[in-house]
């Protein structure tokens, strides 16, 4: 059996609840394809911060680096100042491990109700930049608390960072049946960054003549995601636009409880990290109402990344079975959903 060293960061709120179900499913599927999953559970998040003031100690980061992959639940807690855990733990992992491809597929699966009257055939993947943009902390504040306060948060876009992401997005578009790539940006206002993204897409696009290239300003993309989402195949975009676009893409394809993601380092120099798109949902934490499906589908992305495409496909099919049956069942708890998916797999 091939051993998979899996770092598990369950995190805060519903994070541990949904991660338990993701691991439950992984434990069923892994042995059937000869994988031996060896998890290391990390106590990181609000509890640790309250107890020790630590978010992600250097020594823990170095330990995590030695794993084959990471499964993360969610971080963030109303009792911790906003940004402390989001930046100090989640973004630190994405940045330090150079997970520059934030992969967020959205597919409207059979049996799933979309809030759109006529969603059409929605099957898109957002390739979101994961290490740059307005997320880098390149800003500051002057005269805080005075009427003359000035706050800046400058978006960082490097030729290196944009090109490697755009290349990855074209490769993905090339491998999909529709071979279409849409750059989502705002070059009518964000002159410098927009120009870099546009020139990069033009240049890499010239090397991929069989990929159809389209462009949408991000505001118009919000219209089309609601009126005609089937026009999108691969969407390539920056870190902040991608964050926003993918919550809407989730909402139109069955909700945030189904949206999976991978933070991928395609060079494989560091472990990639798989997590639901949603957060710690403090409003429902502890009630057993969190849908673990997004985490289970993130486990499928993890399996695919590990070269286990068949196992990944089986997990997606088991989720598909569960989604088809959902309409006939009443409300279920987080673990009942996990059990149903695991049973259908076994
Ligand atoms: P959220 O995604 O946690 O919640 C938004 C809404 O979706 C809430 O109504 C919540 O109940 C619902 N929801 C989320 N996941 C669900 C699930 N699996 N099943 C059913 N309903 C679900 O976003 P938020 O409220 O903006 O943020 C809460 C906290 O999470 C904040 O601290 C935020 O910074 C953090 N956050 C973390 C991540 C992450 O760790 N990747 C992502 C987003 C937000
Ligand atoms: C997400 C989250 C994170 C992001 C936050 C919590 C840093 O919203 O994973 O979508 O903005 O990337
Ligand atoms: Mn988000």
UniProtKB/TrEMBL annotation:
Matching Gene3D superfamilies: Isopropylmalate Dehydrogenase
UniProt keywords, alphabetically: Amino-acid biosynthesis, Branched-chain amino acid biosynthesis, Cytoplasm, Leucine biosynthesis, Magnesium, Manganese, Metal-binding, NAD, Oxidoreductase
Protein localization: Cytoplasm
Binding annotation for NAD(+): 279-291
SUPFAM superfamilies per record: Isocitrate/Isopropylmalate dehydrogenase-like (SSF53659)
Annotated SMART domains: Iso_dh (SM01329)
EC numbers: 1.1.1.85
Alphabetical GO biological process terms: L-leucine biosynthetic process
PROSITE patterns hit by this protein: IDH_IMDH
Cofactor section: Mn(2+); Mg(2+)
InterPro entries: ICDH/IPMDH, IsoCit/isopropylmalate_DH_CS, IsoPropMal-DH-like_dom, LeuB_actb
Cofactor-binding details, from the entry: Binds 1 Mg(2+) or Mn(2+) ion per subunit.
Important for catalysis, annotated site positions: 135, 186
Residue span, Isopropylmalate dehydrogenase-like domain: 5-341
Positions of Mg(2+) binding: 219, 243, 247
Recorded catalytic activity of this chain's protein: (2R,3S)-3-isopropylmalate + NAD(+) = 4-methyl-2-oxopentanoate + CO2 + NADH
Annotated binding of substrate, by residue: 94, 104, 128, 219
Record PANTHER family: D-MALATE DEHYDROGENASE [DECARBOXYLATING] (PTHR43275:SF1)
Subunit structure: Homodimer.
Matches recorded under NCBIfam families: PRK03437.1
Name by which UniProt lists this protein: 3-isopropylmalate dehydrogenase
Gene symbol of the encoding locus: leuB
């Amino acid at each position: 059996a091939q051993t998979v060293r899996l770092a598990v960061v369950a995190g805060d709120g519903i994070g541990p609840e949904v991660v338990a179900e993701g691991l439950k499913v992984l434990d069923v599927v892994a042995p059937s394809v000869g994988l031996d999953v060896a998890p290391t559970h990390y106590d990181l998040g609000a509890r640790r911060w309250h107890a020790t003031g630590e978010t992600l100690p250097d020594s823990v980061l170095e330990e995590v680096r030695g794993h084959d992959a990471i499964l993360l639940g969610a971080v963030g807690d109303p009792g911790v100042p906003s940004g402390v855990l989001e930046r100090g733990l989640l973004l630190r992992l994405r940045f330090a491990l150079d997970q520059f491809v934030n992969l967020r597929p959205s597919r409207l699966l059979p049996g799933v109700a979309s809030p759109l009257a006529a969603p059409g055939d929605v099957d898109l993947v957002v390739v979101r930049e994961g290490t740059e943009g307005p997320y880098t902390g390149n800003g500051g504040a002057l005269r805080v608390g005075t009427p003359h306060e000035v706050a800046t948060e400058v978006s960082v876009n490097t030729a290196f960072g944009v090109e490697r992401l755009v290349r990855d997005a074209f490769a993905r578009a090339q491998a999909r049946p529709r071979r279409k790539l849409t750059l989502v940006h705002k070059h009518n206002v964000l002159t410098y960054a927009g120009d870099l993204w546009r020139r990069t897409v033009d240049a890499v696009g010239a090397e991929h003549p069989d990929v159809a290239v389209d462009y949408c300003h991000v505001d118009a993309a919000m219209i089309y995601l609601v009126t005609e989402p089937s026009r999108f195949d691969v969407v390539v975009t920056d870190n902040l636009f991608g964050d926003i676009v993918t919550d809407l893409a989730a909402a139109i394809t069955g909700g945030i409880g189904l949206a999976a993601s991978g933070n991928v380092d395609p060079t494989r120099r560091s472990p990639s990290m798989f997590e639901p798109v949603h957060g710690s949902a403090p409003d429902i934490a502890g009630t057993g109402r969190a849908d673990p499906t997004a985490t289970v589908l993130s486990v499928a992305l993890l399996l695919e990344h590990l070269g286990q495409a068949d196992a990944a496909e089986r997990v997606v099919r088991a989720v598909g079975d569960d989604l088809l049956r959902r309409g006939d069942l009443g409300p279920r708890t987080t673990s009942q959903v996990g059990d149903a998916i695991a049973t259908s797999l076994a």
